[in-house]
UniProtKB/TrEMBL annotation:
Transmembrane annotation, as ranges: none
Family: Belongs to the PrpD family.
Domain MmgE/PrpD N-terminal: 17-258
Gene3D superfamilies, sorted: 2-methylcitrate dehydratase PrpD
MmgE/PrpD C-terminal domain sequence ranges: 288-452
GO molecular function, one term: lyase activity
Annotated organism of origin: Kribbella caucasensis
Protein name: 2-methylcitrate dehydratase
Amino acid sequence: MTVAASPNHIADSVIRDFTSFTTQVRYTDVGDAAVSAAKRCLVDALGCALGAQETDVMRALRTVASTATSSRAATVFGTTIRTTPDLAAFVNGSAIRCLDFNDDYFGTDESNAKGDTGPHPSDNLGGVLAAAQVSGATGADALLGVIIAYEVCGQLVDEVVLRGNGWDHPTFHSIATSAAAARLLGLSRAQTADAIRIASVANICLFETRVGSISNWKGLAGPNGSRNGLFAAMLAEAGITGPEMAFEGARGFMRQLDHRFSLGPFGGKGRPFRVENTYFKHLPLRYELQLPVQLALKLREVVDPREIASLKVYLEHKSVASREAEPALWRPSGRETADHSGPYLIAAALVDGGITEATFEPGRYLDPKLLSVTDTIELIEDTTYTASFPWQMACRFEVRTEDGRSLTIRGENPKGHPQNPMSDAELTAKFLGQVEPRLGEDRARELLRALWSLEHESSLDRLFNLMTPGR
């Protein structure tokens, strides 16, 4: 077996910085704002997870999880299934991600990558909570794990141009979860470095997952990254080492991406943690399309969608697509494409007056009358919007009606953006709207109280029990 690098000297600066942060940060040092933000993320994520339990995808994944057992078992959300920690991480993370209603992070006005990619940081929570459960962590320990995962993931979002180089963001989740899991499992500095190294070199992912007619894997890729991050930490715990120069080596992460970078300042010592700038969703669809859908609902108040001759939608560069390049966005054939299709979602909001689960049923996204409105929509880049993205998200509609009228509507920062935040009360309402139908009002509210006071829980046992109907 290869001899591990010295625990006191880590040559790769990215591995060194992530390891130092992960092993040195303390719950007592992170501050009330970060703890509150971590609880907000858990409330949002577990509401999404429980709301997705009866989908076909989650039924299939629970079947897979139930085939495995472990002497170090973790629980599948909302069930009595006990499976391997990595499978629990995958299934639970997939439940959080399934309805595309969970949080996002694109960075701030200080981010060097300028919102190149926007992974869902709560995709990490399947792995974080599995590690917390099997390690016997307290609620405060689990919250610190959340803060670590969001900080590491956010650092990568802020500094790494990934999507622009043809790669996909689940690799960020592998790295972030490996760090958080290493901390929760009590790994040494040397083991933590190896966990991050293994997660980094083994999990580079392809952006093909998110183009064309999109498959189920779109919603599962991020949670699979978290699963692999937890597995990397478990390997390091057992003494397995990883390549020393995972990021900066001659064939490392930076070389493969053709992009060199260094990490920015970490949260702490008066600087906000990245979890404090989480982007929450008020609609179950791609984050960059939250604002266009809001504007469509506003437009519907003054224009009958049947009267629209053309609708030009001005956005930042990454949200623009043409019908010639991506025809599936104008004719979605499945939920995964529909909830990422700007033309379809704008048309659905105009015609139906909202976005609900019914929006993603075949009878809706194949409806010729709705698709006739989709055909009027063109997506166009406004370079000033690209320049201000992501800390200022902007959108403009220029409408021409069949009788020759013209109308312009503008908006900035959708509800849930860090500069237009959802309140605790709004996140509570979102949670209860998804969880009460499954658990009933009393149990849903008891679970909510446990989440809002998680730092006082001696373990996660009560949390997992409350998520299961009838327990």
